[in-house]
């Protein structure tokens, strides 16, 4: 057996991911030592309750409630406890104690990333966070390292497994949102309180992280436009399918070129995507990130976006990288945010739309609607009309599905308001962006 240098590893948190990381560190200790060039010694696991039931069997003597003492003297600190505090406090303590840190904490990085990265820069430590954006999918290193010499133009990501599971079943089975959400909760894909997932908060945090890396710009969480999927229903799914689309909750990070110079847009919302696009074939609770770069072209990263053992894979990759850096020596590589591109509001984004309206089934209605759209600088690409019958068999109401050419979001929003206020539109059923082409 090779006599490797030993590195002390502290683990904060022993939930679904943390317990798997601890188990794999112990189970594959020899292999990891060969790959890292150092023996990774798990010196302790900080938890709130040392007697709580764990997903895997671990020695009780590894557990402690004293995170601060565990951090001191550790070479690598893995934070998998989640939340903002005390995770932020512990990571800063670890950095100031001379440790490199590995974290999967998307909420913390999306809100306090600059503070964490700056603290690491001050002491020459490094922050590793591959598991924070897309679970097991390797996307952080490709953006930070592999594409560092390229110019990323656009990222479209399905980065929340819960919402993809829900939308996929609604699309493939014709199920209703509430029924699939209940199934997702029973299966453990969704929390008892699913707000963070279905309202897009989780995806927005990941979008902020991805955009910061891709565009070398600090992206505050409050600069990310966010919409959830709770308004998506069976009729919208049916209309999307009929038009050759599928609805996905997308994180879109885009470089824009305007007369005033370059800027970026970061947004999360349900959108239509052509069924021929690679992202349309992402099923179940899987995630995928589609990257468009100036030189490299189109790149697709696909895999499990969550799960204890799957996410543990990304965490352990970071641990090996941190160990190799310790052996090689030198200061950590800081985050590049010097581009400092302005972040524009969603109103300045240009894309295509599908507008669904219920209107009076009378002569001249379509001409009136076309006039309102034209006045709002929104050009019609396609129109499909169906008659909505009432319970007594009378018509009187028609449903219009209008596809547009590219339009400015602000123009589209104002035009939809005018349509809603017109005398011929009974109801604006839905407005969905069309992404991917």
From TrEMBL:
Residues 354-436 form the ACT domain. The keyword Cell inner membrane does not apply. Gene3D superfamilies: 3.30.70.260, Dihydrodipicolinate Reductase, domain 2 (3.30.360.10), NAD(P)-binding Rossmann-like Domain (3.40.50.720). Its EC number is 1.1.1.3. InterPro entries: ACT-like_dom_sf, ACT_dom, Asp/hSer_DH_NAD-bd, HDH, HDH_cat, HDH_CS, NAD(P)-bd_dom_sf. Pathway: Amino-acid biosynthesis; L-threonine biosynthesis; L-threonine from L-aspartate: step 3/5; Amino-acid biosynthesis; L-methionine biosynthesis via de novo pathway; L-homoserine from L-aspartate: step 3/3. It catalyses: L-homoserine + NAD(+) = L-aspartate 4-semialdehyde + NADH + H(+); L-homoserine + NADP(+) = L-aspartate 4-semialdehyde + NADPH + H(+). Keywords: Amino-acid biosynthesis, Methionine biosynthesis, NADP, Oxidoreductase, Sodium, Threonine biosynthesis. It holds the Pfam family NAD_binding_3. Its cofactor is a metal cation. Catalyzes the conversion of L-aspartate-beta-semialdehyde (L-Asa) to L-homoserine (L-Hse), the third step in the biosynthesis of threonine and methionine from aspartate. Belongs to the homoserine dehydrogenase family. This is Homoserine dehydrogenase. It comes from Microbacterium ureisolvens.
């Amino acid at each position: 057996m090779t006599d490797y240098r030993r590195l002390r590893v502290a683990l904060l948190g022993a939930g679904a991911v943390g317990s798997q990381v601890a188990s794999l560190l112990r189970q594959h200790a020899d292999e990891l030592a060969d790959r890292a060039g150092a023996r990774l010694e798990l010196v302790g696991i900080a938890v709130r309750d040392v007697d709580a039931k764990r997903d895997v069997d671990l020695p009780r003597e590894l557990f402690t409630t004293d995170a601060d003492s565990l951090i001191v003297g550790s070479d690598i600190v893995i934070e998998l406890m989640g939340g903002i505090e005390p995770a932020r406090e512990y990571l800063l303590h670890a950095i100031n104690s001379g440790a490199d840190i590995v974290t999967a904490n998307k909420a913390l990085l999306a809100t306090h990333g600059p503070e964490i990265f700056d603290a690491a820069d001050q002491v020459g430590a490094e922050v590793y966070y591959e598991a924070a954006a897309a679970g097991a999918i390797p996307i952080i290193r490709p953006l930070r390292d592999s594409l560092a010499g390229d110019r990323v133009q656009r990222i479209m990501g399905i980065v929340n497994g819960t919402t993809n599971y829900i939308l996929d079943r609604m699309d493939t089975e014709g199920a209703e949102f509430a029924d699939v959400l209940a199934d997702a909760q029973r299966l453990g894909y969704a929390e008892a309180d699913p707000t963070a997932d279905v309202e897009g908060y989780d995806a927005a945090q990941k979008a902020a992280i991805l955009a910061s890396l891709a565009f070398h710009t600090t992206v505050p969480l409050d600069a990310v436009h966010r919409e959830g999927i709770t308004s998506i229903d069976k009729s919208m799914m049916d209309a999307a399918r009929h038009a050759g689309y599928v609805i996905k909750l997308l994180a879109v990070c885009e470089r824009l070129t305007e007369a005033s110079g370059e800027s970026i847009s970061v947004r999360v919302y349900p959108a239509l995507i052509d069924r021929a696009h690679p992202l349309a074939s992402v099923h179940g609770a899987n995630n995928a990130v589609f990257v468009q770069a100036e030189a490299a072209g189109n790149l697709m990263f696909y895999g499990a976006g969550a799960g204890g053992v799957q996410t543990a894979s990304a965490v352990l990759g970071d641990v090996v990288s941190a160990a190799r850096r310790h052996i090689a020596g030198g200061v950590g590589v800081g985050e590049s945010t010097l581009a400092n591109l302005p972040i524009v509001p969603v109103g300045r984004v240009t894309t295509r739309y599908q507008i669904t309206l219920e209107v009076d089934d009378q002569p001249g209605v379509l001409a009136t609607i076309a006039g309102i759209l034209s006045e709002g600088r929104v050009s019609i690409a396609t129109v499909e009309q169906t008659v909505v019958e009432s319970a007594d068999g009378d018509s009187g109401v028609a449903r219009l599905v209008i596809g547009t050419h590219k339009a400015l979001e602000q123009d589209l929003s104002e035009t939809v308001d005018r349509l809603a206020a017109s005398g011929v539109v009974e109801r604006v059923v839905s407005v969905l962006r069309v992404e991917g082409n």
